[in-house]
Amino acid sequence: MPKSNVLFIVVDQWRGDMLARLGTEGLRTPNIDKLCAEGVTFANHYTVTVPCGPARASLMTGLYAMNHRAVQNTIPLDSRHTNLGRELAKFGYDPALIGYTTTVPDPQVTAATDPRFKWLGDVMDGFRPIRTFEPEKEAYFGWLAQNGFDLPDNRDDVWLPEGDDAVPGATDRPARMPAHLSDTAFFSEGALQYLKGVTPGRPFFLHLGFWRPHPPFVASAPYHDMYDPADMPGPVRADSAEAEGAQHPLLDYYLRHTGRGSFFQGADGRASDMSEAEIRQMRATYWGLMTEIDDQLGRIFAVLEEAGRMDDTLIVFTSDHGEQLGDHHLLGKIAYHDESYHIPLIIRDPRRGHRAGEVEQAFTESVDVMPTILDWLGAAPPRHIDGRSLLPFLEGGMPADWRQEVHFEYDFRNVFYSSPEEELGVDMDEASLCVIRDGKWKYVHFAALPPLLFDLESDPHQFTNLAEDPAYAPVLAEYAGKMLSWRMRHADRSLTGYRSSPDGLVDRRASASSPLSVS
């Protein structure tokens, strides 16, 4: 089979429920809508961990966080783990990357003085960076300066709203940089340059990352006031942050300690104190950032069309994680709520069009993306990974042994910008939770804090914790057992499929159990 192309689009902090194809009324994303019409939209797709670094580690390695163990931003990724870039190179592809992966290098294979330990993350080994944010967004700021934009002394102030009298926070004012110089334009211009420069006939793989709709929540004109805040859905939350926080100590911690400054450049105050009007304005800006990405994707798709490459290019659109957007009085991607973990996944397969426009309801996870891309290219996915190829869904059938639930993890140990361990009274290696969620129940297990149990049919927004109700003890035990079994099945399997025998080394996972020759 002749080699084909892959365009792997990874946006940042895009909620899974915010797609027109899934019923979001008023959101204008015609190019993504067309992608949905020509591909399959996975309605119940979840990242297996948050925030950015751990989520991208799972996305690129196909491993649950319990196996790759890069469990928080700032935590290194062990170099022994293969990833999508390395596997593509084995198969003869040049794994080009535009965007970022937020990967901290392995200190076992470099020095403590490595400058990459000074920032949040770098590009994952195995990818060839074309245009990136890392380190410290220097390439983007240099691009702004090269294009005549006057950089402020504090470079991040480019994301302040326009006007000397602007008040930092949720705003209908435009960002200080024009749309043609936004970070979204920066990445899309890199993609256009790359795609136009690819040697005709040479197969390509491009990881195309966008920072948006990640905060700061400010948009360039005309996207800043494209949507009316009054048309935005209101937040789903308890009557007060204090009432919300009564559900669990971890939730209470984040409600008290998450500041607005991480979401609005220069802002003060708690995120949990935002009014409904502020949240609606923030959501209007968030939608504007989404439409800006869609407009740029239209330019990129047009270049593929003009080059005649849409018919041999797999297009995958997904996000690293979601965003609370004021639901449960929270901003960001934290704790255990679905808004942080439910993410979009659209796959347009030019070889399999009979399911075009359909919505798949099966539970899928971010670890499934890596093996799907490799499988589509004809490269065998590594056998030890946790994800499974989604090609059977594109062909019209769900495997009989497919998972009936999703799983996701969160590690809340101290990092340089958050310190919950002391207040919650947990050790670094106890600061973790794991979730198992199906269509009926959601169980949240903590290593050293009380568990949570929600009935999703009667309480879809998860306000009522049933874990302490004796009537639900059998359900609690059942789902705790399911989680234990899941973890046991997915413990590191890098070498457990091999065995020695009188005839030599045997690979039990191979289709034939004949002895292997080992070089």
TrEMBL record:
Keywords: Hydrolase, Metal-binding
Any Pfam family matching the protein: Sulfatase
Protein name: Alkaline phosphatase family protein
GO molecular function: metal ion binding; sulfuric ester hydrolase activity
Organism: Mangrovicoccus algicola
SUPFAM superfamilies hit by this protein: Alkaline phosphatase-like
Entry-linked InterPro entries: Alkaline_phosphatase_core_sf, HdlasePehA, Sulfatase_N
NCBIfam families: HdlasePehA
Entry keyword Ion transport: no
A GO cellular-component term linked to this record: cytoplasm
Domain Sulfatase N-terminal: 4-379
Superkingdom of origin: Bacteria
